[in-house]
Every structure is written in C-alpha cells, then in structure tokens.
Write a structure and sequence with these properties.
It is a single chain. This protein is an alpha+beta fold. The chain has one domain. About 50% of the residues lie in helices and about 10% in strands. The chain is built from nine helices and four strands. It has a four-stranded antiparallel β-sheet. The radius of gyration is 18 Å and the shape is globular.
Length: about 210
C-alpha cells in the first residue's frame, strides 16, 4: 500500500510545505471511508481491478483539496505530478518490462498471454469493478493485433458514487503516458469518463 503513498507525500509536501501534514491526515481519513468500496479489488481475479485501491486514495486526495476550495486546475496539476511519477520506471529492468508486451504480441507465447488476459478481463467479477475485451483483429488495431475496449470502468463508478465524476478524466490523461512507456502511441476516440459507451484503446508502435 505504501508503495504509492510515498508519491502522494512527496508532491503534497512540495506543493503545500506548511499544510502537508493536515492534507495527508484528511486524505487518510477520507480514504478509510472510500476504500470500503474497493476492498474487493485486492483479491479480484480481474487484474485491472487492482488499480482501484490507488484510485481510492487518489479520490481521497481530490476530496480533501475540494473541501479546501482548490480549483480544478490546481487539483489536476498535483494529481498528474503524483501519477506520472508513480508510473515512471524506476530502473532499467522496469523500463524493459513495460516495453515487453509490444515485442512479444506476435509470438506464440504472446498470443497465449493475450488469450489468458482476455479471459480474466472479460468477466465482471464485481458490479463495482472493471470489464474489458481484448481486440486482436489487426484491421481494428492498426496492424498491431492488440487493443482493449473497457466496457465497464470501476474508477468511473467509484467517482460517480462519491459525486466526484468530473475529476475522473484526470486519470484518463495518464493512459497516453503509460502507453508511451510501453513504446506505443495511444489512439482513443472516447472514454466512459467523458460520456462514451466504452473506452477504446488502440495503439501504434512508436518509431525507434
């Protein structure tokens, strides 16, 4: 759990050196309540659900800032600082692993992994969780043979439940960064957070 909280501490302290202890205490208090809605994610068979604990703390921080009267743009700025640093590879090994999937997609081993991944993603094990389909048709995926359609978004449901839906799109912005870390360019026509029926993740390989 503390693996991600250290990034929250880092940037809250940098941006609010005089108030960071109070901000973090309020965030922890809100997280205690919010996290009851995502406790299922820690044992979920759907791997995308594992993002929900981080999202609960993310929402707790947003709620804290909102109660302090911070503007949407200020909240967005600090939340992106935290999230971008969180996903950034911390070693050459991590950087290699993030770029591994695009390299093995077309191999027999990659195809086995994709099928197994799809089997786990396509089942909504909890009404508050995620459900997704992996798209392997090369005509639909710019020739890559890999794309994802998010059919149900657990993060959107969480933010909607707590009446903070207008902030969920901040997390969507990070998808382009994580795609780039994998050596891919993200193409997306819509997101559930912005009113689309599903989030369509399509990718092209970045030029070497």
């Amino acid at each position: 759990m503390d693996n991600y909280r250290k990034y929250f501490r880092q940037f809250v302290k940098e941006n609010y050196p005089n108030d960071f202890c109070k901000i973090l205490a309020d965030t922890d208090r809100h997280y205690t309540v919010i996290s009851t809605d995502t406790a299922f994610a820690k044992t979920s068979k759907n791997p995308i659900d594992r993002r929900l604990d981080f999202s609960s703390y993310f929402l707790a921080l947003i709620k804290t800032f909102d109660e302090r009267g911070e503007s949407f743009e200020n909240i967005r700025t600090i939340c992106l600082q935290i999230t971008i640093e969180y996903v950034r590879p911390k070693s050459k090994i991590q950087a290699f692993l993030k770029r591994l999937l695009p390299r093995i997609i077309s191999t027999w081993f990659g195809q086995i992994l994709i099928k197994a991944f799809h089997k786990r993603l396509s089942v909504n094990t909890n009404p508050d969780g995620f459900m997704a389909n992996i798209i392997t048709d090369k005509k639909e995926t710019y020739g890559l043979g890999y794309g994802i359609d998010i059919i149900a978004c657990g993060i959107c449901r969480l933010f909607q439940k707590h009446h903070y839906a207008k902030y969920v799109s901040i997390l969507c912005e990070v998808d382009e960064i994580t795609s780039g870390l994998a050596g891919l360019q993200l193409y997306r026509t819509g997101t559930i957070a912005n009113g689309a029926k599903h989030c369509d993740f399509r990718f092209k390989r970045q030029a070497s």
